[in-house]
């Protein structure tokens, strides 16, 4: 396979996972990033790295020229100063003019209900006339590796209410569905992605079993999260008061038999990283937790 795929957000979580999967599958990858120095691992793996900005038409047009496919993802709340709708529509226009044959857009769970910017981009892409796949990932399992959403001070701390069952997806599984999109197996489809659905207590129990240490769940005060990122806080407030639309995980597993549960993700990649993080966190454990 010698086709070229432009991967935006290549130094982010989703873009990086997609780039690595495509390289492993034999695609040529053009990794777009605002900071090429952060993409050294992708360059070492065989990707060509190019500097670009999602809101800069000239750089996007140059990057899309000659590409078979484009993976489109926007950092959303991690880039509050950027116009997500303008950037998403611009990439669709640039890809269409460049003759790109397939565009895979990573949107978000319940975009048509709660993610107005992503929903607008979805509709624009669907009306563009070019072959597309829309992926709507649920919360990343890898988020639990981030102290803001995971292990901190010897406990699992998120802003999620204890009763809320949250749907989860591994980044490698998002990448697998993206690869299927570029292979033409998902043309015109919109897939909401999840491999598991757990309450915070169930997540804490699974992590405890994986790392061999009891990890309690403590709900992070929403105001504490709001001070870090108001859009993250808004998202958790919505989740705590509105159940997520249920994902048909069995149907997804029929498309991707290797789709991981949270326990499988822990076994394959997560537990080793969480153990390392817990090793740092446990230095600050309260006496009752030692």
Q: What layout of secondary structure does this protein have?
A:
Blueprint: E1 4-7, H1 13-24, E2 28-33, H2 40-45, E3 48-51, H3 57-64, E4 69-72, H4 84-97, E5 102-106, H5 111-114, H6 116-126, E6 132-137, E7 139-140, E8 151-152, E9 155-158, E10 166-169, H7 171-182, E11 190-193, E12 196-198, H8 200-211, E13 217-219, H9 222-228, H10 230-241, H11 249-255, H12 262-281
Parallel strand pairs: 1-2, 1-4, 2-3, 4-5, 5-6, 6-11, 7-10, 9-13
Antiparallel strand pairs: 8-9, 10-12
Specify the helix fraction band.
Answer: 40-55%
Highest-level CATH class of the largest domain: Alpha Beta
In CATH terms, what is the fold-level topology of the largest domain?
A: Rossmann fold
Largest sheet: 7 strands, parallel
What's the domain count? 2
């Amino acid at each position: 396979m010698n086709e070229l795929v432009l991967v935006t957000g290549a130094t982010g979580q989703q873009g990086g996972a997609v780039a690595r999967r495509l390289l492993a599958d034999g695609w040529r990858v053009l990794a777009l990033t605002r900071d090429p120095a952060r993409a050294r691992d992708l360059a070492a793996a065989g990707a060509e790295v190019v500097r670009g900005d999602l809101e800069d038409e000239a750089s996007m047009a140059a990057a899309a020229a000659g590409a078979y496919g484009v993976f489109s993802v926007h950092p959303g709340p991690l880039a509050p100063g950027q116009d997500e709708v303008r950037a998403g529509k611009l990439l669709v226009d640039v890809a269409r003019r460049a003759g790109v044959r397939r565009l895979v857009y990573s949107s978000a769970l319940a975009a048509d209900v709660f993610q107005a910017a992503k929903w607008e981009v979805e509709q624009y892409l669907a009306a563009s006339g070019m072959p597309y796949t829309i992926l709507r990932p649920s919360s990343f399992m890898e988020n639990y590796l981030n102290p803001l959403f995971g292990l901190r001070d010897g406990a699992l701390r998120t802003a999620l209410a204890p009763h809320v069952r949250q749907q989860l997806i591994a980044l490698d599984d998002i990448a697998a569905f993206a690869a299927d999109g570029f292979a033409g197996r998902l043309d015109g489809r919109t897939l909401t992605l999840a491999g598991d659905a757990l309450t915070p207590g169930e997540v804490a129990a699974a992590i405890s079993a994986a790392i061999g240490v009891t990890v309690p769940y403590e709900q992070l005060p929403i105001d504490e999260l709001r001070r870090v990122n108001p859009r993250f806080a808004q998202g958790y407030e919505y989740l705590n008061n509105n159940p997520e639309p249920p994902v048909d995980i069995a149907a997804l597993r029929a498309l991707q038999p290797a789709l991981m549960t949270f326990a499988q993700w822990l076994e394959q990649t997560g537990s080793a990283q969480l153990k390392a993080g817990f090793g740092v966190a446990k230095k600050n454990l309260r006496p009752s937790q030692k």
